[in-house]
Design brief:
Blueprint: E1 23-29, E2 40-45, H1 50-62, E3 76-80, E4 83-85, E5 102-108
Length: 111
């Protein structure tokens, strides 16, 4: 449904890229999971490796679901902004095309 403003809306978004400096917002979505009903947002450095991103930010979040506890990022399929994606653990987020407000989707393999 379209929204029509009554007046001029000239307020800059507070989540725009330039607000975050060398950091960026990255979303993680785990589909078909009752514990995670929607994508979660993480503030991560653009230069952070994918492995560090998983270990320090994503794994503690994902492992809060007991059915996913102890799972590795390798235990599933990935998408980046809706396209198939294979993370490189050593490369930075930026070098892999993971940019500000990118959506990562992780579909864990069945046990």
């Amino acid at each position: 449904m379209a929204v029509k403003a009554l007046g001029k809306y000239d307020i800059p978004a507070r989540d725009r890229k330039e607000v975050f400096g060398d950091d960026q917002l990255v979303y993680l979505y785990v589909p078909n999971n009752y514990w995670f009903c929607s994508a979660a947002c993480f503030r991560a450095g653009q230069a952070m490796s994918f492995e560090a991103f998983w270990e320090t930010m994503l794994a503690p979040f994902v492992h809060s679901d007991s059915t996913l506890a102890g799972r590795s990022w390798r235990d599933g399929r990935w998408q980046l902004n809706g396209e198939p994606f294979t993370p490189d653990p050593e490369r930075s987020l930026a070098a892999q095309g993971i940019g500000h407000k990118s959506l990562l989707t992780w579909t864990p393999n069945p046990l």
